[in-house]
Amino acid sequence: MRSVSQIVCDFIKGGYVMLESGLHTTRLLESEALQKRNSNLKYLLEIKTDNLLFPFRWQAGMTGSINRKMPELHGGWDSQNSHIRGTFTGHWLSAAAYTVEETKNSELLVRANDIVDELEKIQELNGGEWVFPIPPEYIYGVRDGRGYWAPFYVCHKVLMGLLDMYRILGNTKALEIVLHASGWFTRFLEETSRETLTRMMDQQETGGLMELWADLYSITRDPAHLALMRGFERPALFEPLLEGKDVLTNMHANTTIPEAHGAACAYEVTGEERYRKIAESYWACAVRNRGTFATGGQTSGEVWTPMNQQAARLGDMNQEHCTVYNMIRLAEYLYRWTGDSEYSDYIERNILNGLYAQGHWASSTMDSICQPLIPERKLVTYYLPLKAGATKKWGTATETFWCCHCTLVQAHSRLREFIYHTQDSSVSVDQFIPSELRTHINGEEILLTQTETDLGGSCNQINNTAVNGYGRPKLWSRDIRITAEKPVAFTLKLRIPWWVKGAPVCYVDGIETPYEKKQGYAVLTGEWKHNIIRWVLPKAVTCW
Question: Rounded to two decimals, what is the model's pTM?
Answer without folding.
Answer: 0.94
